[in-house]
Structures are given as C-alpha cells and as structure tokens.
Amino acid sequence: MRRPSRAVLTLAALFAFAVTGTTTTTAAAAPAAQPVSMAAEYGTVPASATAGTIGDIYPAKWRNVPQDSVIDDWNMYNRECVSWAAFNIARHGKSAANYGDAKYWDDNARSNGFRVDNTPTTGSIAQTDNGRYGHVAIVDSVHGDTVTVEDYNWTGDGHYLVHDVNASAFRYIHFYG
User: Fold this and answer.
1) How many CA within 13 A on the CB side of residue 25?
2) DSSP letters spanning 62-84
3) Is residue 164 within 8 Å of residue 45, measured between CB atoms?
4) 98-113: pLDDT as tens digits
5) What is d(CA 25, CA 119) in angstroms, rounded to the nearest whole number?
6) Which of 39, 83, 94 is nearest to 58 (CA)?
7) Which tens digit of pLDDT belongs to each residue from 124-166?
C-alpha cells in the first residue's frame, strides 16, 4: 500500500497556487475519503500465540531510512508491503521484481506461471486488490478461517507487523511449494 507523501501534496498545492494565484481545494470538493490504511479497512487482530514468525529481517538499508525514500532491488519503494514481500520471495530464489502495486500481484504472478487461489498455505503471499494500492503479506501460519501474516505498512506508517486476518479476505500466491 502506498500513499502520497505530505511533501508531494504540498508541492501540488504550491503549483496550483502559482498557476492560478488561488488555492482550489476545499473540504467540500475533496473526493470521498478512503481508509488511510489496510488496518482501518480490515481491522487488526493481535497474532495468534502459535505463530512461527519470520521476524523483521528486512535489511537495515531499507528499514532504517524514511518510508518511500529509496527504491529496493525489485524496483519498489522501501518499507511498503510489496518491498517486504519481494525481499522474502527473493530469499527463496524466486522473483517478484517489477510486479508494481499489490493490486496487480495476482495477475502478474499468474502470467508468470505461479498458482493463485483461495487456499492459504504457510509461505504463500496473501494478496488483495482492496484499497488504493492493494496489499500483500506473507502467510506465517493458518488457523482454520484465520491466517497469521507478516507485512509492512498494514497500518499506513511503514512499519513491520505480525497479525491475524480473515483468510477469505485475500487470495493466495504460491511462489514456492
């Protein structure tokens, strides 16, 4: 999930002012608000006690700098769900390079010969088109109708999180296994 930075919005407002001499955005004219995070859309439930988490092993060169400030080895912004997932997929010898926003991952994976279905398995990628950019996460464990996932940017702040989600809210990409 990716959102415009405050700096980009400020630059857009300054540009609009420079061109027209007035500001043009009003609260009434603003588009309908979308949830600011996947957590706002789906809710967040603490992870199951039985989760066998990977842990936040995301490289410091991407984790310890501001979100969206650098491009990773897979052509994605740092501290986003797609960068975290692509990093973990690469650890297993596969690639999701240039897959783009999370909402395109299922289609890109299918076109590259990977299985995409509604069956979560440990290590698969949970994917949804919901929200502006969609979301991807790594399935850590499956507990009936619930899956424990690990991801970045679930709450919209570019941080790592382990949490439970309803299995039926996602489709699953099987890069390995």
Assistant:
1) 10
2) HHTS-TTSSB-TTS-BTTSHHHH
3) yes
4) 999 999 999 999 999 9
5) 44
6) 83
7) 999 999 999 999 999 999 999 999 999 999 999 999 999 999 9
Q: In sequence order, which residues have a C-beta less than 8 Å from that of residue 113 and are 6 or more positions away? A: none
137 in Cβ contact with 120 (< 8 Å): no
Residues belonging to the chain: 177
By three-state DSSP, how is residue 97 classified? coil
Asked whether 70 and 58 are in contact (CB, 8 A), the reply is no
Q: How many CA atoms lie within 13 A of 117 on its CB side?
A: 8
- Predicted TM-score of the model (pTM): 0.77
Triad 161, 164, 169: Cα angle to 5°: 110
**What is the per-residue pLDDT for 51?**
65
Amino acid at the residue 135: H
Determine which helix (DSSP H) or strand (DSSP E) holds 10, and give its type and residue range. Answer: helix 6-20
Report pLDDT for 54: 83
Asked if residue 172 lies in contact with residue 125, where contact means CB atoms within 8 angstroms, the answer is: yes
Q: CB count, 10 Å around CB of 20?
A: 9
Tens digit of pLDDT for each residue in 12-71? 333 333 333 433 333 333 344 445 677 777 776 677 656 677 889 999 999 999 999 999
